[in-house]
Write a structure and sequence with these properties.
It is globular, with a radius of gyration of 12 Å. The chain has a 4-stranded mixed β-sheet, with helices on one face. It has a single domain, classed as Alpha-Beta Plaits (2-Layer Sandwich). The chain has 1 helix and 4 strands; from the N terminus they run αββββ. Helices cover 18% and strands 32% of the residues. The longest helix is centred in the first third of the chain and has 14 residues. By secondary structure, it is an alpha+beta fold. A hairpin with a 2-residue loop joins strand 3 and strand 4. The protein starts with 6 loop residues before the first helix and ends in a 7-residue tail after the last strand.
Length: 76
């Protein structure tokens, strides 16, 4: 894993954010180093019962995705 994610990973992160942006409870998408030295997307949601959790995929464009509860919504 390099210091900077590839453009393919950055584009995949942006498209995942666009997919979920209008969902209630969505905070944002981050990128983290996974447990096996690979990147993973982290979808941040406001609460454990946020409706967006049902729409978070387990994988996006070949990259694992996990949800994390908590975060501050970005300014619109």
């Amino acid at each position: 894993m390099g210091d900077h994610p590839s453009s393919r990973i950055r584009q995949a992160k942006a498209s995942l954010g666009k997919l979920l942006a209008t969902e209630a409870g969505f905070v944002g998408v981050g990128l983290a180093a996974g447990t096996k030295g690979r990147y993973e997307f982290v979808v941040m949601v406001m609460e454990a019962d946020s409706p967006v959790l049902a729409k978070v995929p387990t994988e996006w464009e070949g990259i694992p995705v996990r949800a994390q509860i908590g975060g501050i919504p970005k300014k619109q």
